[in-house]
């Protein structure tokens, strides 16, 4: 191994050993040349590749702090920023899907705040929530969804989000959420891998209450704990021994309204150090 890599490994070990929180921004996947060399077969593979490449690029230029080690590592590539110039904001739509990996208090607010800061906007046009799955053997219930929806509702009232939606709800659960919620879901994503045709009862309910039905191909678990840990280790040349607990993953798309094309797409990731 070359000396500079050995040095980078040492610096990475020190930085990651002292840190308690990891925040990562992949930058615009539409323009990142390193990621164009590989065509991921799934959203999970794309995210794993993004985490590994971003950490590798960030650590190549990371320097040890002259004073205290930071508690939070902000891993991003400055030249890959997706900040929207104010004069272009009205022409663009910012759509987000937020995958909650565990029910961390205020994780939704943290993710939305980080997205707004990263993209240079005061409001996200739409946020679709993918909450943690229920305990194995149980089914998703309204009680599982309510805490996340209450947090989203507060963000709508604070004008940080314009519209909120759900993912993978059947007609009965979508109806329960709609009847209970003060701020109604504007959309619901359906995974066509598990149902080739939109269920007629879901279609009828959505049409009656003006809920947009969208399709997606995201797996139930976007990235497993083991796969995330592997991506971190490979991105830091296996310098990191500590375990990291993935808290949330946010995927954003910046769309040109008049043409319907994606100008930018990327991921924001947050993880905390697992308790010993």
Automatic annotation (TrEMBL):
<dbReference type="GO" id="GO:0030234">
    <property type="term" value="F:enzyme regulator activity"/>
</dbReference>
<keyword id="KW-0317">Glutathione biosynthesis</keyword>
<protein>
    <recommendedName>
        <fullName>Glutamate--cysteine ligase regulatory subunit</fullName>
    </recommendedName>
</protein>
<dbReference type="GO" id="GO:0006979">
    <property type="term" value="P:response to oxidative stress"/>
</dbReference>
<comment type="similarity">
    <text>Belongs to the aldo/keto reductase family. Glutamate--cysteine ligase light chain subfamily.</text>
</comment>
<comment type="pathway">
    <text>Sulfur metabolism; glutathione biosynthesis; glutathione from L-cysteine and L-glutamate: step 1/2.</text>
</comment>
<dbReference type="Pfam" id="PF00248">
    <property type="entry name" value="Aldo_ket_red"/>
</dbReference>
<dbReference type="InterPro" id="IPR023210">
    <property type="entry name" value="NADP_OxRdtase_dom"/>
</dbReference>
<feature type="domain" description="NADP-dependent oxidoreductase">
    <location>
        <begin position="86"/>
        <end position="215"/>
    </location>
</feature>
<dbReference type="GO" id="GO:0035226">
    <property type="term" value="F:glutamate-cysteine ligase catalytic subunit binding"/>
</dbReference>
<comment type="subunit">
    <text>Heterodimer of a catalytic heavy chain and a regulatory light chain.</text>
</comment>
<dbReference type="InterPro" id="IPR036812">
    <property type="entry name" value="NAD(P)_OxRdtase_dom_sf"/>
</dbReference>
<keyword id="KW-0007">Acetylation</keyword>
<dbReference type="GO" id="GO:0017109">
    <property type="term" value="C:glutamate-cysteine ligase complex"/>
</dbReference>
<dbReference type="InterPro" id="IPR032963">
    <property type="entry name" value="Gclm"/>
</dbReference>
<dbReference type="GO" id="GO:0006750">
    <property type="term" value="P:glutathione biosynthetic process"/>
</dbReference>
């Amino acid at each position: 191994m070359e000396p500079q890599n050995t040095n980078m490994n040492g610096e990475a070990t020190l930085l990651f050993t002292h840190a308690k929180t990891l925040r990562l921004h992949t930058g615009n996947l539409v323009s990142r040349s390193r990621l164009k060399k590989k065509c991921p077969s799934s959203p999970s593979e794309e995210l794993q590749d993004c985490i590994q490449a971003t950490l590798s690029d960030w650590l190549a230029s990371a320097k040890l702090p002259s004073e205290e080690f930071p508690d939070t590592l902000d891993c991003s590539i400055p030249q890959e920023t997706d900040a929207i110039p104010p004069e272009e904001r009205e022409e663009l739509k910012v759509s987000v899907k937020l995958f909650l990996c565990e029910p961390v208090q205020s994780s939704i607010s943290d993710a939305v705040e980080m997205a707004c800061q990263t993209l240079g906007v005061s409001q996200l046009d739409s946020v679709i929530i993918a909450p943690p799955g229920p305990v194995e053997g149980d089914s998703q219930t309204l009680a599982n969804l309510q805490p996340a929806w209450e947090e989203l509702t507060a963000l709508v009232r604070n004008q940080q989000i314009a519209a909120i939606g759900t993912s993978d709800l059947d007609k009965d659960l979508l109806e329960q959420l709609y009847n209970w919620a003060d701020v109604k879901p504007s959309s619901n994503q359906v995974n066509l891998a598990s149902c080739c045709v939109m269920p007629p009862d879901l279609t009828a309910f959505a049409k009656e209450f003006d809920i947009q039905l969208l399709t997606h191909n995201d797996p139930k678990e976007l990235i497993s704990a083991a796969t995330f840990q592997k991506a971190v280790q490979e991105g830091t040349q296996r310098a990191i021994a500590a375990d990291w607990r993935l808290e949330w993953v946010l995927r954003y798309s910046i769309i040109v309204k008049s043409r319907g094309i994606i100008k930018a797409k990327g991921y924001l990731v947050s993880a905390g150090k697992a308790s010993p």
